[in-house]
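User: Hello! I'm new to structural biology and keep hearing that structure can be predicted from sequence alone. Could you demonstrate with NEBU protein? Please show me the input and the output so I can see what each looks like.

Assistant: Of course. The first part below is the input, the amino acid sequence of NEBU protein. The second part is the output, the predicted structure written as tokens.
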Amino acid sequence: YTEAWDADKKSIHVMPDTPDILLAKANSANISHKLYVQAWEEAKKKGYDMRADAIPIKTAKASRDIASDYKYKETHEKEKGHYVGCPSAKDDPKLAQAARAMALQNDRLYKKAYNDSKTQIHIPADALSVQAAKECQTLVSDVDYRQYLHQWTCLPDQNDVIHARQAYDLQSDNVYKSDLEWLRGIGWLTEGSVDVVKAKKAQELLNERLYRTRPEQLKFTSITDSPDVVLAKTNAMQLSDV
């Protein structure tokens, strides 16, 4: 009896243009993330065309140039007023004299002309002294005098060869760093250098305490028998209730 009704309940037909179906589709499109970012994804696939003369590009370049010029002059602005003495080392007589004395005492500059002229010596290849030296070298040469029977070769993976290489590396490192041992523990104090003296002179010029003396530091003693003090004492005695 109820078989036909049960079969009819399973076959439900809803028209696609009903208000509920249309409302559900609209809500689904509104909350869909894929549809929300679809236009942005398509715009990214097309790329972009930014011209060099575009207003944002020109603005960014101008801002970069302004920031670069500000950073370039920032150190100069901070160091204004800290220079004491001559504008350059050449204008200072003491610094010029010290530079001249250093140049005179410099051994490299003293021997520069000699070292340059050492390599400009030309000796003929057929000179008697050169020929005699070659013959003497041939006579005393161990290569022509001695004929070796066999040259022994060692494999690179032998234990004695590896041990010799390690010992050679250790010895070479010690010899390489031996000239720096006497420098260990030696420091240098900046007291008396040009920059420290300049900073001290600038500090003295900018010191407010040395520039002026405060009134409370001046020693002042009032005169007890001056007319003003005597008059004040008399008025105080007359007005005193005691």
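User: So the tokens describe the shape?

Assistant: Right, they're a compact way of writing down the 3D structure. Reading them back into a model, for example: The chain has 14 helices and no strands.
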